[in-house]
Amino acid sequence: xxxxxxxxxxxxxxxxxxxxxxxxxxxxxxxxxxxxxxxxxxxxxxxxxxxxxxxxxxxxxxxxxxxxxxxxxxxxxxxxxxxxxxxxxxxxxxxxxxxxxxxxxxxxxxxxxxxxxxxxxxxxxxxxxxxxxxxxxxxxxxxxxxxxx
Length: 149
Prior knowledge:
Blueprint: E1 26-28, E2 34-37, E3 43-45, H1 59-69, E4 71-78, E5 85-88, E6 94-96, E7 103-105, E8 110-115, H2 127-140
């Protein structure tokens, strides 16, 4: 049986990327290979690494090995101001809430085990297509409230 290995070089954090031109936050538009700055209109290319073959895993075998292969320990803290849950790295002892900028300290944190990603699949459905499909589906529901339709 072949053992799965996770590449430690892969960044698995949920970072906010800033525009190189003006510093504003960049956003991802489904179906593209770039991030867009809504402030100055510039585009930043995303480094895409093609996966030649996605390995299909046996579910029962994977569940038995998942604990040792795909989990990582992180520090999690709940913001007392806005209630958001944030994670931060082992070497960081204090940070700010990414939503309301309230100071967060390590003493209030607890440890959790999170599942580590193996692949990331970007969205390929645009906002308009999602809206069209959702509207069609909602209209097909017989007992759905009219305000929902």
